[in-house]
TrEMBL record:
Keyword vocabulary terms for this entry: Transferase
Domain of life from the UniProt record: Eukaryota
GO MF term set: succinate-hydroxymethylglutarate CoA-transferase activity
Family: Belongs to the CoA-transferase III family.
Name this polypeptide is given: CoA-transferase family III domain,CoA-transferase family III
Any one annotated GO CC term: mitochondrion
A Pfam family hit: CoA_transf_3
Matching PANTHER family: SUCCINATE--HYDROXYMETHYLGLUTARATE COA-TRANSFERASE
Length: 520
């Protein structure tokens, strides 16, 4: 059994626990309003989409989500792009993927290498003092490192451990890696989507629904309060999402065909061409169909025995569409929306992103939030889709830079500054202020940089001191960080260079395609 408090340089243990609890940094709403999961701590060992979406929902609800990332690269989705957002701060990266931004708000980032002994120890310690751990590694991966469910249950019997995988923890495919589009292919969604050929849904719905399933299961386990092992996988989620299509096959032997925007069992129900775009409408019952016929000025259509009931309309869908499609093409989306005002059937225009976010209703509900970031002037983010009257749904914490909170979290666990420094020296952890300096190979003036840097060792930081950015800044494709910053890095040293040499080095580094970690 792992000892929760191993022998090592530490602060007083009782004080450390109190400090951790007080510094657990639950996401409290604006004005100090509590959120439903305030006080709940989540260790997030997930990457890409399904897991991060799950943990983001928990964070939105007030949980303190600590995202464990591998040193150097972090979550794979940090590099998914373009598009990227520029990062202006002491970060290993000078840009951040907007894919990552969309799935990681309200979290803290800690760089820990769990493949190494001290990294595993930190994960165990965090799990021992948390309520939830969620991970999305191939089954058995964390067990081999001594941080699987059985290992962590010995430390914290009330831990809710959620494993998100591609195909589950049993069966011949359990060791296979899984992605959204693969699960959608195998689970029948892609075959049922599109018109003539199988199509991928524009967003990773299988990933997102898996995250939704996982977050709901975690909440249920927390409510029960006795600890739990939850298995959630992409393929099971995808099959469960097939609902009526799966039921039709299992019970009636009915194979699915591709319906495009149409509905297999409801008519009319699809996107219709108008004079300036497309308008989607659906009539789910006969009352709605009669209302539709009245508004398009052919009430007699509803009395026709070929269309009097939904079953009749499904049987005669092509005949019905030949009647109503030419009528709908005569007016614009805006004109039809005015005509359909107050009707009992749902309808709406097919919008692009610009139209969707400029919609007056979307503006009124405030789901798009402007957030002032420490590393960028401002980010626009689509906030939580649900609101709590007593706590709101404001975004409270920017998506984290890689390792932004490493020192903060380790200190709150009771690790001494000296011990954290020793871990850093062994590359067991990597806080934001630690950099990997790569040797630059340049010609001409760039030889100066190469000779100055030589084979600088991993973790060192060189600061070229300067008074201001060069006047020809427009020639520089990317500026990493402004100058004259204070660094807390024992390995750092400054080079005071003559003016012309500073400018030469500035241009050489910033115009290079080498991924250097210089701070100028």
């Amino acid at each position: 059994m792992f000892a929760l408090r191993p022998s090592r340089p530490r602060s007083n243990s009782a004080a450390a626990i109190a400090a951790y609890r007080s510094a657990s940094s639950s996401n409290v709403g604006v004005g100090g309003r509590s959120r439903p999961l305030n006080g709940v701590r989540v260790v997030d060992m997930t990457r890409v989409a399904a897991g991060p979406y799950c943990s983001m929902i928990l964070a939105d609800m007030g949980a303190d989500v600590i995202k464990i990332e591998r040193p150097g690269t972090g979550d794979d989705s940090r590099s998914f792009g373009p598009p990227f957002v520029d990062v202006r701060g002491p970060s290993n990266d000078d840009r951040l993927s907007l894919y990552f931004v969309a799935l990681n708000r309200n979290k803290r980032s800690v760089c820990v290498d769990f493949r190494r002994p001290e990294g595993r120890r930190i994960v165990r310690e965090l799990a021992g003092r948390s309520h939830v751990l969620v991970e999305n590694y191939v089954p058995g991966t964390l067990d081999r490192h001594g941080i699987g469910y059985d290992d962590l249950r010995e430390i914290n019997e009330k831990l809710v451990y959620c494993s998100i995988t591609g195909y589950g923890s049993k069966g011949p495919w359990k060791q296979k890696p899984g992605y959204d589009v693969i699960a959608a292919s195998i689970g029948g969604l892609m075959n049922a989507t599109g018109d003539e050929t199988p199509s991928k849904v524009a967003v990773p719905v299988t990933d997102l629904m898996t995250g939704m399933y996982a977050h709901g299961a975690i909440l249920a386990a927390l409510y029960r309060g006795i600890g739990e092992k939850i298995d959630c996988d992409l393929l099971s989620t995808q099959l469960s999402m097939m609902i009526n299509l799966g039921s039709n096959y299992l019970n009636a032997g009915m194979h699915t065909k591709r319906w495009g925007t149409e509905h297999e069992s409801l008519v009319p129900y699809k996107a219709f061409k108008t004079s300036n775009g497309f308008l989607t409408l659906g009539t789910g019952n006969d009352v709605q169909f009669r209302s539709f016929c009245d508004r398009i000025s052919i009430p007699e259509l509803a009395a026709d025995e070929k269309y009097a009931t939904n079953a009749c309309r499904v049987k005669n869908r092509e005949l019905l569409y030949k009647v109503i499609e030419p009528i709908l093409k005569t007016k614009t989306n805006e004109e039809w929306m005015t005509i359909f005002e107050g009707v009992p059937f749902p309808c709406g225009p097919v919008n692009d992103m610009a139209q969707a976010f400029s919609n007056e209703h979307v503006k009124e509900i405030g789901i798009v939030q402007d957030f002032d970031c420490s590393y960028n002037k401002k980010l626009k983010m689509v906030g939580p889709a649900v609101t709590f009257k007593n706590s709101g749904n404001e975004i409270l914490r920017e998506p984290p830079l890689l390792g932004q909170h490493t020192d903060e979290v380790l200190t709150s666990l009771g690790y001494s500054t000296e011990y954290i420094e020793s871990l850093r020296s062994k590359n067991e952890v990597k806080p934001l202020s630690t950099f990997d300096l790569k040797c630059l190979r340049f010609g001409g003036d760039r030889v100066v940089v190469h000779r100055l840097c030589g084979d600088t060792t991993r973790g060192d930081l060189i600061v070229f001191q300067h008074s201001s950015p060069p006047k020809f800044e427009s020639e520089i494709p990317r500026q990493r960080v402004g100058g004259n910053r204070k660094f807390n890095n024992n390995n750092a040293f400054k080079l005071m260079l003559h003016l012309f040499m500073r400018y030469s080095i500035w241009v050489a580094i910033l115009k290079s395609k080498v991924d250097s970690d210089f701070i100028l």
